């Protein structure tokens, strides 16, 4: 592989795939928290399955409370021992802990999915980019991997890739194709697989005979197919994680709506 020195002025070594100031600003906003800004984050929404039993029970308890307050002679008929409060408190605590553990498990599953995506993309970049036939193909692989990551982030948020996120190194036409697709991450995977298929090393050495007189293929001729098989395996992992991340997102939203 060609070494990179301090005097190397190739443009893609100085430019980024992503817009640095945009993500630095987003990261700065993400890491800050205003304790007084918690009220706008509250959101109460209930489905009819929960709302109607809840409003009926609340209205009934309110009526009984008002009735006992105005007719104190019936207070003994509605009084309960402290054991009932202890039992209900224990049951409520169990439900709160169970709900918290379930929420944490969902968050951890989503975190593991993203870690799998990151590790797989790093493997693809390290394995495929150095062995492309030419410099342009190597650059295209890097652009397409970053395009997949951007499209996956936008896909789980039901958005499109924003052009202010892109750096000078990204190909706007490639992003346009992804944004026009009904499933951007799968389109990005398809394009990446096509690039790997047509720009991996081709047969460069003729078959040779070993010491036993058996004809074998040259090492270079086997490199392309082997790398393509490994690339398709990594792309299959990414395709699986696309829908896992989307499912984790939908489950998180369902928890918030309930």
Give the fraction of residues assigned to helices: 55-70%
* Helix and strand pattern: HHHHHHHHEEH
Q: Strand share of the residues?
A: under 5%
**Radius of gyration in whole Å, from Cα?**
29 Å
As residue ranges, the low-confidence spans are none
Average pLDDT reading? 79
Total strand count, please? Answer: 2
User: What characteristic shape results from the CA principal axes?
Assistant: elongated
Number of helices: 9
Kindly report the spatial arrangement of strands forming the biggest sheet. Answer: 1-2
* Major sheet characteristics: 2 strands, antiparallel
| Class based on secondary structure composition and strand pairing | mainly alpha
- Quaternary state of this entry equals single chain
Question: How far is it from the N-terminal to the C-terminal residue, by CA?
Answer: 55 Å
Explain this structure:
The chain has helices at 11-14, 20-31, 48-70, 75-78, 82-128, 135-156, 172-180, 184-199, 219-257; strands at 208-209, 215-216. It is elongated and about 95 Å long. The protein has 258 residues and is mostly helical. The protein has 9 helices and 2 strands, in the order H-H-H-H-H-H-H-H-E-E-H. Helix 5 (82-128) runs antiparallel to helix 6 (135-156). It has a domain at 108-205 and 217-258.
Topology of this structure?
Blueprint: H1 11-14, H2 20-31, H3 48-70, H4 75-78, H5 82-128, H6 135-156, H7 172-180, H8 184-199, E1 208-209, E2 215-216, H9 219-257
Antiparallel strand pairs: 1-2
Helix pairs in contact: 5-6, 5-9, 6-7, 6-8, 7-8, 8-9
């Amino acid at each position: 592989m060609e070494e990179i020195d301090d005097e190397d002025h190739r443009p893609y070594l100085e430019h980024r795939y992503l817009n640095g100031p945009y993500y630095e600003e987003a990261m700065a906003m993400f890491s800050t928290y205003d304790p007084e800004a918690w009220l706008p984050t509250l959101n109460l929404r209930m489905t009819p399955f929960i709302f109607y039993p809840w409003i009926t029970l609340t209205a009934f308890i309110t009526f009984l409370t008002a009735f006992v307050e105005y007719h104190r002679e019936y207070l003994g008929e509605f009084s309960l021992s402290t054991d009932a409060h202890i039992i209900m408190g224990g049951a409520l605590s169990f439900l709160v802990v169970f709900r918290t553990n379930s929420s944490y498990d969902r968050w951890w599953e989503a975190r593991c999915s993203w870690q799998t995506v990151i590790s797989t993309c790093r493997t693809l970049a390290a394995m495929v980019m150095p062995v492309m036939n030419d410099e342009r193909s190597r650059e295209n692989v890097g652009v397409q991997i970053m395009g997949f990551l951007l499209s996956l982030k936008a896909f789980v948020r039901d958005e499109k890739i924003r052009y202010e996120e892109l750096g000078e190194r990204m190909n706007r036409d490639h992003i346009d194709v992804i944004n026009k697709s009904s499933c951007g991450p799968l389109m990005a995977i398809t394009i990446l697989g096509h690039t790997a298929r047509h720009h991996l090393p081709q047969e460069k050495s003729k078959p040779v005979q070993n010491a036993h007189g058996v004809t074998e293929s040259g090492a270079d001729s086997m490199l392309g197919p082997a790398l393509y098989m490994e690339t398709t395996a990594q792309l299959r992992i990414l395709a699986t994680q696309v829908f896992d991340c989307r499912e984790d997102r939908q489950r998180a939203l369902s928890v918030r709506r309930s």
